[in-house]
Amino acid sequence: MILPGEDAADLAALEQGLRLDLAPKGTFEDELVRIIARDLWRLRRIGRAEDGVYMRTWARENAEAARAEASLYEMHEDPFRIDFGGKLTITDEQAHDEALGRVGAARRFTEAEGLLAVPVHCDPPSGATLDNLARYEGALRREVFRCLHELERRQAARRGQHVPAPVAVDVTVDAKGE
To answer: Torsion over CA of 159, 163, 167 and 170, rounded to 10 degrees?
Structure first.
């Protein structure tokens, strides 16, 4: 899947480069290379997603601070009315406009194309959000190496080499005990 800010040609180049490097033969080896390419592509996203978590939070905090600053230059006709429906007087037009400009800039930044924080649910960046990203990264790395080990074993067998039990043992541990 290609997300906004990504280029399908880059993914195709990654897969083509892996095909040249790994030289798969047959459907199964070809599929292993495709899985490796897909997982490496996803690994590239993780850094952008982590950056997005922090940047989105930074922008949101800046928008809130700028809005609070703008409100310092606002005087309501009747400050005790709950709905603030009365006349609004701006005490310093230039400072008020600058603060509102920073609010708009921060909000536009959070909506920027290619910022991958939104799907990560970064409201605000908690340890759980970053832990989830780290677990996802670890799972992808394990999958890449598992596929690579299987590809190497199949290629060695195809060349007529003796294929002993794997030296690199791929182990998956489930913390839930399932």
So the answer is: 90
**Domain-wise residue ranges, the chain:** 8-158
Q: Identify the residue whose tokens are 């880059």.
A: 10
The CA distances from residue 34 to 8, 15, 29, 146, 178, in Å, are 14, 7, 9, 13, 29
What per-residue string of b and e applies to 2-15 under the rule 16 or more CB within 10 Å gives b? eeeebeeeebeebb
Give me 131's structure tokens. Answer: 């832990």
Query: Is 147 buried (19+), middle (13-18) or exposed (0-12) by CB count in 10 A?
Result: buried
Please name the residues in contact with 11: beta carbons below 8 A apart, sequence gap of 6 or more.
2, 37, 41
Count the Cβ atoms, other than its own, within 10 Å of residue 27: 8
Q: What is the pTM of this model?
A: 0.65
Please give the C-alpha separations between residue 138 and each of 46, 88, 102, 142, 163, in angstroms, as whole numbers.
11, 54, 38, 6, 27
pLDDT tens profile 67-126: 888 888 887 666 555 555 567 788 888 888 888 888 888 777 766 544 555 555 544 555
Contact 172, 142 (CB under 8 A): yes
